[in-house]
Description:
Blueprint (H helix, E strand, L loop, with lengths): L1 H64 L9 E6 L5 E2 L7 E2 L2 H14 L4 E6 L8 E5 L1
Antiparallel strand pairs: 1-2, 1-3, 1-4, 4-5
Keywords: Membrane, Transmembrane, Transmembrane helix
Amino acid sequence: MNFLKKIFEWKTYIFTVIVVISFSNFMVVLFGHTIPGVFLTFFKMAGEYVILGSVFVFALIWLIKARPHNRPKQYSVVVFDVFGKKSQIEGIRTEFKTYDVAWSFMKQYKKEYPLHNFALVSEHPNSDKPTIFKYI
């Protein structure tokens, strides 16, 4: 009987110890595994989406910038005198179909006529004014 009395006296304390151990184990699992796991999973997925989204944005920007440009079909060499006014030199070619040929002729004209300046221009169908590509 004496033995049972000791058990019943310690009953409350044993119950308290079991509850405290269970509750502390619950707190460790909750704050040590569950909550950090949820946050880590969320931020890992969010980071993946941010990286994937930035890759798509940069790819889209690259595609927009890399689109083919409308190259002019006709180039002209415009002659300017010493005072900066348009002038004509007889016997030189001023209309070209390719940029490289026009630039080559323009460099040759600059050597032959050092007192004149030359501009490589082209008319775009969308704009009113001619576009100057090179000026020497």
